[in-house]
Write a structure and sequence with these properties.
Elements: H1 2-12, H2 23-74, H3 79-97, H4 102-108, H5 112-127, H6 131-134, H7 141-147, E1 149-153, E2 158-160, E3 168-174, E4 176-181, E5 185-186, E6 192-193, E7 198-201, E8 204-206, H8 209-212, E9 220-224, E10 228-234, H9 235-244
Length: 246
């Protein structure tokens, strides 16, 4: 206990309880006190730098929000639309702190081959939700993973509308989508009613037919009901991939 109190006193600068008795102990005490001072200074400097970085990110985000607010006020943007923009920017900021959107920036810093390997690792579990990609040859699937790109959407964003010619397949990575069938249903009594909307939770996919048909018009409307991350697979890139690997 005496030795523990002595060691604690050296590192905290409090009362030692005992004093060094000969020359070697005095040298050890002086050296340990300097070492503890340096160690404490380095620890405090790292804490200060960390809080400064957090504060700077908050300041930058606040300035961006004010700039958007001034821009929308001068442009006469309706208040409801301003609220949607504000919520989306808040989501972007939160996602960036959670490394959900910063990964795109980090991937750009990698070499082309490393970027491809990481992208394949991230996109393979999503693409293989569909049976076509699940049964795709192992040497071809990585190329399909690379041509897919991420899209971030805000609540209320319309992904596609009924009757719209669609040239991409979408995989739902995060969030929820609402699918609104466009065709009316005729009941037995002769009344016309709209079909019930369908809620899709992640992981899922939509518009698979767009990849395999020359012209495909969406029979439904898809709306985001939460902040969503979609993986978009364009038909033109998919067709080029089929020509490269017939």
């Amino acid at each position: 206990l005496i030795a523990l109190r002595f060691a604690a006193g050296l590192f905290t600068g409090s009362d030692f309880g005992i004093q060094p008795g000969f020359f070697g102990e005095r040298i050890f005490v002086v050296f340990t006190m300097f070492a503890s001072f340096i160690l404490l200074s380095m620890t405090l400097s790292k804490i200060v730098v960390l809080f400064n970085q957090i504060g700077q990110e908050n300041v930058d985000h606040g300035e961006m929000m004010l700039q958007f607010k001034d821009f929308m006020n001068k442009g006469g943007v309706p208040f409801s639309l301003q609220q949607k923009v504000r919520r989306y920017l808040e989501f972007q900021y939160k996602s960036r702190k959670e490394l959900q959107t910063r990964r795109f920036e980090m991937l750009d810093k990698l070499s082309p081959w490393l970027r491809k390997e990481v992208t394949v690792h991230l996109n393979r579990p999503v693409l293989t939700l569909h049976p076509f990609f699940r049964e795709m040859p192992a040497e071809l699937l990585p190329h399909a993973c690379v041509i897919a790109s991420s899209v971030l959407c805000a609540p209320g964003d319309v992904v596609l509308q009924t009757g719209q010619t669609q040239q991409s397949m979408y995989f739902l990575v995060r969030g929820k989508l609402q699918v609104l069938p466009g065709k009316r249903v005729l009941t037995e009594s002769g009344a016309v009613r709209m079909p019930t909307a369908i809620i899709l939770d992640a992981p899922n996919f939509i518009c698979a037919e767009a990849l395999f048909r020359p012209q495909w018009a969406a029979p439904y409307t898809v709306v985001c009901i939460s902040h969503c991350e979609l993986l978009r697979l364009p038909k033109n890139a998919f067709d080029r991939l089929q020509l490269e690997f017939p």
